[in-house]
Design a protein that fits this description.
single chain, mainly alpha, 16 helices, 0% strand, membrane, transmembrane, transmembrane helix
Length: 439
């Protein structure tokens, strides 16, 4: 076939990507054919992964040079290496379990004590896990490169929409010449109820109180602690209200504290009013005789913890020998902590990034950044980078603490640290505080 249609099919480089992805997944399974503790399966896997990384790099470089709009199939091909890397991590784990080195390879490399395992086996296994994490990051970078034109257009459109909305608000307020993205709903002069506790916050509190008894009833039938998420919401009540009042900062910003800071402020103050009543509901219902009978019916007295939630010294609430006063105090203190945690999560992962993308000028005032037209473009970029910095500050330690040193989550966290450092430097170098100086 000649003419433009000749290049319409799948390109050879795309075929190579798919072949390398499949080979990376399968290669670790060759441990069943290799001699005991032989490094060959990991050597082959690592070589294929490096080839896959090089292939992704070629895709990124080619796209940056060409500027051709991406097709749907291009996004699929870009995501294939990330999916394959996740599957490769699974087959690497199986191979490591077969060799008996999972969780011990990196400590041996750091200590130098071999315990009969060849150095090459430990080293290539750990490098293969790290390279799988690098492939995930590189694949994500390729997707961003493919979508860069759409992202720029979308951000520009969102900025134009935000500017139009802000202009309409300014015109309605009689101040058309003032550039201001923050349109406060509450002020210091408002009463506590209006500024902190909106009617909907009281409704969420009441709904939580009504749903607690049936939730605790279900929890009584869970002696093994399988309903972990529901259990902690009920044992330490208050997270739902904390999350809700933080989310309200999107449409109920404050003149003094803005959006993000007000979300955190409400998350600290509102639980003082809402957690104690919820703790009372929990205390009264769990101390009723028919609830205690249900706990006893499901508890296993032969287990170290007869009932994960309600029976035994190690239970979340010990109804068999624990003091009601202790239960009430722990419910209040835990409720405060979980409400604040929920508010922080909503503020960092929802409120901040949403506003940074849709209405970044609303964040300039509370960030003490200049609203001078000469600095607005830089400071808008800073607000977006700051949002990404806050997210990474939570994501990186979470990935590294909850993962072993030879698991892909740990390596993704480690690889994101340089990204965090670069973002911090870029944000610091571009920000302009009120008056034109850097903060």
């Amino acid at each position: 076939m000649n003419g433009p249609e000749a290049g319409a099919g799948r390109r050879p480089s795309d075929a190579v990507t798919w072949v390398l992805a499949a080979a990376c997944v399968v290669a670790p399974l060759s441990v069943v054919l290799a001699p005991d503790d032989a490094p060959a399966p990991f050597v082959v896997t690592l070589a294929l992964q490096v080839a896959a990384l090089v292939q992704i790099g070629r895709h990124i470089a080619g796209r940056l040079r060409s500027g051709i709009a991406a097709r749907a199939g291009d996004y699929v091909t870009a995501g294939v290496p990330a999916v394959a890397a996740a599957l490769t991590y699974g087959t690497l784990t199986l191979a490591a379990l077969e060799y008996g080195i999972r969780g011990s390879a990196l400590p041996r490399l750091m200590s130098g004590v071999r315990h009969g395992v060849p150095l090459a086996t430990d080293l290539t296994y750990v490098l293969s896990v790290a390279t799988a994490a690098a492939i995930v990051v590189a694949s994500a970078a390729l997707v961003v490169v493919l979508a860069r034109h759409r992202l720029r257009a979308g951000l520009a459109e969102a900025g134009d929409a935000a500017a139009t909305a802000a202009e309409a608000v300014r015109a309605a307020a009689g101040s058309p010449g003032r550039r201001r993205g923050l349109v406060p709903v509450t002020r210091a002069s408002d009463g506590f109820g209006r500024r902190m506790m909106s009617p909907s916050a009281w409704v969420v509190t009441a709904v939580t109180a009504v749903l607690m008894p049936p939730g605790l009833w279900l929890l009584a039938a869970d002696p093994q602690g399988n309903l972990m998420f529901l259990g902690f919401l009920l044992v330490f009540p208050g997270a739902t209200v904390g999350a809700w009042v933080a989310l309200q900062a999107l449409w109920r910003p404050d003149e003094q504290f803005g959006h993000v800071v007000m979300a955190l402020y409400r998350g600290m103050v509102v639980p003082v009013l809402t957690v104690p009543p919820l703790a009372v509901v929990q205390l009264v219902f769990t101390r009723l005789p028919f609830f205690a009978d249900r706990v006893v019916a499901y508890a296993d007295p032969e287990d170290y913890i007869p009932h994960y939630w309600f029976a035994g010294d190690e239970a979340a609430i010990d109804l068999t020998g624990g003091s009601p006063l202790t239960q009430a105090v722990m419910a209040v203190l835990g409720g405060f902590a979980f409400a604040l945690l929920a508010a922080v999560v909503v503020a960092v992962f929802v409120v901040w990034p949403y506003l940074a993308l849709v209405n970044p000028t609303a964040l300039l005032t509370e960030s003490k950044l200049s609203e001078d037209p000469a600095h607005v473009a830089d400071n808008v970029a800073v607000t977006r980078m700051s949002s990404a910095i806050a997210i990474l500050a939570f994501v990186i330690p979470t990935l590294m603490v909850l993962s072993e040193s030879d698991e892909i989550g740990w390596w993704i966290g480690a690889l994101l640290i340089p990204v965090l450092v670069v973002l911090v430097y870029r944000a610091w170098s571009r920000q302009r505080a009120t008056g034109g100086a850097r903060n």
